[in-house]
Write a structure and sequence with these properties.
Arc Repressor Mutant, subunit A, Beta-Lactamase, 2 domains, 6-stranded antiparallel beta sheet, 19% strand, globular
Length: 270
């Protein structure tokens, strides 16, 4: 039986998928090889993509992802709208800590970082806007998995897990306990799971319907008791973003506030 040729859409997506963070600029021959296309087909499709703006041709005949594609991607509801709602709170969190501040969403068993603010003297992190990481190894991933639907949680618990450092959570029972602890405390702490020198404190962000739509985190150098001073600030940022997105749980008055006697000041802990 004759094998079906890939559709034009699949070929175009293969061309775009040829670019990676490690190889953001590629010559035409390499694009054709990575996409599995004949050189003539690759040339025709790359020319059309360049004309539209999805690719840009630079010096020495290499191609990069074009600005037009970034403009279209920014229209994704989990991108532009979320980032616009979150930025004031991310900026406040950065001013309070002067450490790496991140915003991420869940995509299957991975997290995608949609925003990051990094200080000049902050600890080194591997993450970048648009980058992906395994959810089980990151603070934002643990915060999101803990509030994901039961089926996705069980998939994450049962799936093989990459061990990025000796401290990465990989055992199913260990991950199950970690997610339960996130639900109990409201925060996720990932200490040395991606890099031994870095610790992340993260909290889920909720949207309409009180569904977890993102997570916010601060990444600091890993040291004893480094997480505790950051928890109130991270929770406050997550609650502020959730309120901006219209999450009912963030709009309701906290029970702590309702119980305060008249005239007593309220110091938020969420």
């Amino acid at each position: 039986m004759q094998q079906r040729r890939p559709s034009v859409t699949r070929r175009v997506l293969g061309i775009l998928d040829a670019f990676t963070p490690d190889r953001p600029a590629l010559p035409l021959a390499e694009i054709a090889r990575r996409a599995g296309l004949p050189p003539a087909t690759a040339h025709r499709l790359v020319t059309e993509l360049t004309r539209w703006g999805a690719l840009e041709r630079g010096g020495r005949g290499v191609y990069r992802i074009g600005l037009r594609l970034w403009e279209v991607a920014a229209l994704a509801p989990r991108g532009l709208g979320l980032r616009e709602a979150a930025m004031p709170f991310l900026e406040d969190l950065y001013e309070a800590t002067h450490e790496n501040v991140q915003l991420a969403v869940l995509d299957g068993l991975e997290v995608v970082f949609v925003e990051r603010i990094s200080g000049r003297d902050a600890v080194h992190v591997f993450t970048r806007v648009g980058g992906r990481f395994p959810a089980h190894a990151t603070g934002v991933g643990l915060a999101l998995l803990a509030h994901a639907d039961h089926e996705l949680q069980e998939r994450a618990i049962a799936a093989p897990k990459a061990r990025l450092t000796p401290k990465t959570i990989c055992a199913p029972d260990e991950l199950r306990r970690a997610l339960a602890e996130v639900r109990r405390t409201g925060v996720a702490i990932s200490d040395g799971q991606v890099e031994l020198v870095a610790l992340s404190v993260a909290a889920p962000v909720f949207g309409p319907g009180d569904r977890a739509v993102a997570a916010v985190s601060v990444v600091v150098p890993s040291r004893e008791r480094a997480a505790q001073p950051l928890i109130p600030a991270v929770l406050a940022a997550a609650r502020g973003i959730s309120r901006a997105l219209g999450a009912p749980r963030a709009i309701r008055v906290p029970p702590t506030l309702r119980r305060l006697p008249p005239g007593q000041p309220f110091h938020p802990t969420e």
